[in-house]
């Protein structure tokens, strides 16, 4: 049993840790094997395999046609494996654009379709893809540049998983895939990587061999190529995007199918196990694949032998193991890193079980060549694992309350107040100092680039209005003068119960293509948006306020980000103008800080909210919030984020609007925002995918804790004043806070407000007081969904913007 345990545990350790270290040492000592790149653009046949993909095939074909590769050198073919939905009909719609459909009348599987089609394609290079894999614009160029090297026979790109379905399988698959990409990089540096990726890999057409119909083409095909003396390599710059299986049951079935067919592939190409034929590649096949497929039997052997040894060791050891197991279980419930490790462990054991079943099926020949995608497969979806900020706040508040009670009982009230003070101060320092510093550092090092390209999709410019006669004419003249094709720009004004001349003015622009949606009753901005969006069919929707004037190229700057399939929403940069009750300098400083923070978050991954005065979304990701929602610029983009798409900031999409002209107007606006935020946190709208760690941290740090900052400030002041009688340090803190408050009060006199420190203190306390009022209104549900209208400064002529 000792030998069995050491053997199983040792092989597992080598497979998942020792082999990567071995590859690293070889590259370190010998240096990476180079690949020669070239600029030639050979003719490419782009083959898409599909079965019942009507949900994604149109998007896939649009994506393929938008790839940056000469159209006269690109052949696009869809192989339909007897699809029974609308897939074939959709593909035929693209015949005029050069897309060919190859339909198999009977369902025989992906490899059978490739066997029938590949020998007859016209390309020198054949690229294989799946229907749900969306390519970056330069993906084909990045793939084919490697074929300038006469040693290269097969090139695999990098499939990046989009964050859509969020389950244990989804989180585990992402971690597993990230680890596997590291192995592929090392193997390429050593010589050849093992296998390919069916979502994005390319071969020289001359190297294609007819495969058994139950073979897994993206594994067996590269193995055959290596045995002929060619290299198979990984090209990380050739990127596509796809979703994970997202469901435990679907992922389990997929893994069984992969292992069973891959195991058969090794048996059918035994030369890859011969080091005298393929050199180190045989070690790579055994280490990267064969031993990994044996994970299930090795885990089973380690568990059985380890259990027997624990039994033989006696009650003391068994007791320690039981305590350790209970401790790990408790930690998994309360400590996020441990919980993530537990989820990954569950995913690992699911892979182990799938490998056992797959090996048995592959060994006895029970292997099917047909497949059912996770998008069409039967079986209930896993419950989405989401993070609800309000639950986190309540849980943390409860833990803090228990701690304070325990401290009060054991060490006295002063100890509890001391803890509460430092907790409040730490929260404020984190929100306004530490978090911005961390996100800034990350943004300078981790920048998932947004693929940008000049696009001209059909756009709907959606303007909500209520009694906007002072500015609506200028707004529409500005919209009609934007630098965007008129036949691809639809302008809609949703008038939310306007009783002035707004509707009359908008109707005057009907001959220029402006559509008025006049709603007789005032129900609020979201209600107007929800009803109006039912009439919108454009690919992209740009939301804008009636008093916001866009710069000419603002729309182009927004939509160019949608060339990246991972982007679902884009926020613009709205600059405030006017005196704004002498708050301009302080307010501008605050908004510059906010824009900088949003830009950092956008570079790291995704923003949480957008600027409601100017933002764009893909129409298909619009989810109507409840009609009484206060913050549309939080609820709408959060639905986009829950769909697994990024919300990014575009600084070149600029617009201008008049800021608040009075301090009262700014107070009311800030109060409404925080009341809406409290409403947002109390609803399912705020729930976000738990596995998107950056989004969870950003939501808590930039939004939730920021909205709670008045509570922290009040607690810090009250506790410092209470403790001042016991400590000089706390007296200093109390005096400092009081002095800062007095500076804010002094700013109520406009001449003093223009002084820098006083203006900043005044604006800070105005915002904090407004937030406190809004917080109470939000808790009590007393904030009206209809926004309070202040008089607009009239705009009589179009504004010249650059």
Indicate the topology.
Layout: H1 2-30, E1 44-50, H2 57-65, E2 74-80, H3 87-92, E3 99-103, H4 110-117, E4 125-130, E5 134-135, H5 139-144, E6 152-162, H6 168-190, E7 200-204, H7 217-227, E8 231-243, H8 248-268, H9 275-278, H10 281-293, H11 295-313, H12 315-334, H13 336-364, E9 386-387, H14 389-411, H15 413-445, E10 459-465, H16 472-480, E11 489-496, H17 502-507, E12 514-519, H18 525-533, E13 540-545, E14 549-550, H19 554-559, E15 567-577, H20 584-604, E16 614-618, H21 632-642, E17 646-658, H22 663-681, E18 688-689, H23 693-707, H24 709-723, H25 728-746, H26 750-753, H27 756-780
Parallel strand pairs: 1-2, 1-4, 2-3, 6-8, 10-11, 10-13, 11-12, 15-17
Antiparallel strand pairs: 4-7, 5-8, 6-7, 9-18, 13-16, 14-17, 15-16
What does this structure look like?
The protein is α/β, with parallel strands linked by helices and 802 residues long. The longest helix is centred in the middle third of the chain and has 33 residues, at 413-445. It has 27 helices and 18 strands. Helix 12 packs across helix 13. The N and C termini lie far apart (78 Å). Residues 164-169, 374-384 and 796-802 have low confidence and may be disordered. The chain is globular and about 90 Å long. Strands 3-2-1-4-7-6-8-5 form an eight-stranded mixed sheet, with helices on both faces. The protein has an eight-stranded mixed sheet with strand order 12-11-10-13-16-15-17-14.
């Amino acid at each position: 049993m000792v030998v069995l345990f050491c053997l199983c545990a040792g092989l597992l350790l080598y497979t998942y840790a020792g082999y990567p270290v071995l590859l690293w040492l070889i590259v370190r000592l010998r240096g990476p094997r180079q690949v020669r790149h070239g600029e030639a653009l050979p003719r490419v046949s782009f083959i898409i395999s599909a079965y019942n993909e009507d949900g994604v095939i149109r998007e896939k074909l649009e994506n393929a046609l938008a790839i940056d590769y000469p159209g006269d050198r690109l052949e696009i073919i869809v192989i339909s494996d007897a699809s029974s939905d609308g897939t074939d009909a959709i593909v035929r719609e693209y015949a005029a654009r050069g897309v060919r459909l190859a339909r198999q009348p009977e369902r025989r599987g992906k490899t059978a379709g490739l066997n029938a089609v590949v020998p007859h394609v016209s390309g020198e290079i054949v690229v294989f893809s799946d229907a749900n894999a969306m390519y970056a614009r330069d993906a084909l160029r990045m793939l084919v540049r490697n074929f300038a090297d006469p040693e290269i026979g097969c090139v695999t790109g990098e499939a990046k998983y989009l964050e859509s379905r969020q389950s244990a399988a989804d989180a585990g698959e992402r971690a597993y895939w990230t680890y596997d990409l590291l192995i592929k990089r090392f193997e390429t540096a050593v010589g050849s990587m093992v296998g390919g990726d069916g979502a994005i890999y390319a071969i020289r057409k001359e190297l294609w061999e007819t495969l058994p119909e139950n073979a897994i083409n993206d594994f067996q095909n590269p193995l055959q190529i290596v045995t002929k003396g060619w290299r198979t390599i990984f090209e990380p710059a050739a990127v596509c995007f796809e979703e994970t299986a997202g469901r435990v049951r679907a992922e389990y079935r997929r893994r069984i199918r992969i292992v069973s067919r891959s195991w058969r592939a090794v048996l059918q190409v035994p030369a890859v196990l011969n080091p005298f034929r393929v050199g180190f590649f045989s070690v790579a096949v055994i280490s990267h694949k064969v031993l990994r497929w044996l994970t299930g039997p090795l885990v089973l052997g380690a568990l059985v032998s380890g259990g027997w040894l624990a039994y033989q060791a006696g009650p003391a050891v068994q007791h320690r193991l039981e305590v350790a197991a209970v401790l790990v279980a408790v930690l998994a419930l309360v400590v996020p890193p441990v919980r993530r490790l537990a989820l990954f462990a569950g995913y690992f054991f699911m892979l182990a079980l799938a490998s056992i079943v797959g090996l048995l099926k592959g060994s006895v020949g029970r292997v099917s060549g047909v497949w059912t995608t996770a998008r069409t497969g039967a079986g209930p979806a896993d419950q989405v694992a989401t993070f609800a900020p309000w639950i986190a706040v309540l849980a943390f508040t409860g833990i803090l309350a228990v701690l304070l009670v325990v401290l009060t009982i054991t060490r006295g009230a002063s100890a509890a107040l001391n803890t509460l003070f430092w907790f409040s101060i730490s929260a404020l320092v984190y929100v306004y100092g530490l978090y911005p510093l961390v996100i800034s550092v990350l943004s300078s090092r981790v920048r998932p680039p947004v693929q940008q390209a000049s696009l001209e999709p059909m756009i709907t410019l959606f303007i909500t209005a209520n009694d906007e006669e002072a500015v609506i004419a200028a707004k529409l003249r500005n919209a009609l003068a934007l630098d965007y094709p008129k036949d691809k720009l639809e302008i809609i004004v949703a008038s939310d119960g306007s009783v002035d001349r707004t509707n009359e003015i908008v109707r005057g622009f009907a001959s220029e293509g402006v559509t008025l949606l006049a709603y007789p009753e005032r129900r609020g901005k979201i209600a107007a948006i929800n009803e109006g969006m039912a009439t919108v069919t454009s690919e992209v929707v740009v939301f804008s306020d009636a008093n916001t004037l866009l710069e000419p190229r603002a729309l182009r700057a927004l939509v160019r980000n949608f060339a990246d399939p991972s982007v679902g929403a884009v926020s613009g940069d709205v600059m405030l103008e006017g005196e704004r009750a002498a708050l301009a300098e302080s307010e501008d400083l605050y908004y510059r800080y906010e824009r900088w923070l949003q830009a950092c978050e956008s570079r790291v991954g995704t923003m949480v909210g957008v600027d409601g005065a100017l933002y764009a979304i893909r129409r298909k990701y619009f989810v109507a919030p409840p009609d009484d929602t206060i913050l549309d610029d939080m609820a709408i983009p959060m639905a986009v984020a829950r769909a697994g798409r990024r919300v990014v900031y575009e600084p070149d999409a600029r617009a201008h609007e008049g800021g608040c002209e009075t301090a009262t107007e700014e107070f009311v606006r800030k109060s409404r925002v925080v009341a809406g935020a409290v409403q947002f946190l109390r609803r399912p709208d705020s729930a976000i995918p738990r596995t998107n760690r950056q989004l969870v941290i950003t939501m808590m740090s930039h939004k939730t804790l920021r909205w709670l900052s008045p509570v922290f400030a009040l607690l810090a002041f009250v506790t410092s004043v209470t403790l001042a009688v016991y400590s000089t340090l706390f007296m200093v803190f109390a005096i400092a806070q009081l002095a800062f408050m007095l500076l804010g009060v002094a700013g109520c006199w406009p001449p003093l407000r223009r002084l820098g420190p006083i203006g900043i203190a005044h604006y800070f306390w105005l915002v904090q007081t407004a937030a406190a009022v809004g917080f109470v209104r939000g808790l009590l549900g007393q904030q009206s969904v209809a926004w309070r209208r202040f008089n607009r400064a009239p705009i009589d002529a179009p504004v010249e913007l650059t």
